[in-house]
Amino acid sequence: MRKHTSSRHILSKKTTRRANFRTPRLKSTTSFIFALVLGATLAVGVSVWATTIGNNVSVGGTLTSTGNVSANADLSVTSGARIGADSDPGHITSLADDSFFVEGQAEFDGIVWFDGTLHASSTLLVGAAATFYGNVTIGDAAADTLTVTSNSVTFSNSATATVNTNVLNGFSFATSTASYGLPLLAVGSQSAGRPARVGIATSTPSAMFAVNSFGGLNALVIGSSSASSTFVVDSQARIGIGTSTPGAKLSVDGDGLVLISSQAATATLRIYSSSPATGANGKGGCIEMEDVDGNVFSLVATTTNGPAVWQGAACR
């Protein structure tokens, strides 16, 4: 026989069952607008359209925002942060262009690893030491520059600077003043039919080693400029031995013996008044000497196949 229960008794049991729950259950599809107070906890699957957060919010599951999220104070991440879908939650990962963007300054006190390319469209400032274990490329255009403001550059191992082939002025050192227009040192690369060249004060060395005199300075000085052992080539291509101020194409100053010798049985000193441009010897050679009193004498050949004439006059 079926047992009947009064409706009043059933209502009393439902009321008692509801009273045993301290927190109302919210369906996962429920959407509502409310104000969060101190220490509020969101259940899994709850959709919040607008909130006013007084203090802390604890989320037991995943918190998803379809709009913008702003943090007016510090943002602390105790584990990892995920940026972009399918990224590693243990790291901050950028999977798309500008998906991790810092408008102002960013400070990293630990190690930062870049598995891909580090691209700085403006200034990249490194306040401490920087170590690069692979190849480093600086600049991708001819107008790009590398500026080193420190006093020295040190190479711990043997270093080689490589320039492209068939380049006349492949590598050069220049001053910061562009008005001079001359490099301190220019190195040209070697190619087929042209050897490598080094130029000082010239960007177009015409020989394997070329020195361009500039500002009236001597092109080459070996020894002290005031010592008797000086060998000088001045700005007018005059050679001085024992003197820093040669007055002729070849000037020898000081006491000593001028020795002319060769491996052959005889040695010949030829003096011409002009260069034999056609292969024929020039005529009218002259040797000039001066005594201690300032008197000038010369030995000059004036006629073809004739004897040299000693005269008490200068060659010219």
TrEMBL record:
It comes from the Bacteria. This is Uncharacterized protein. The lineage of its organism: Bacteria, Candidatus Sungiibacteriota.
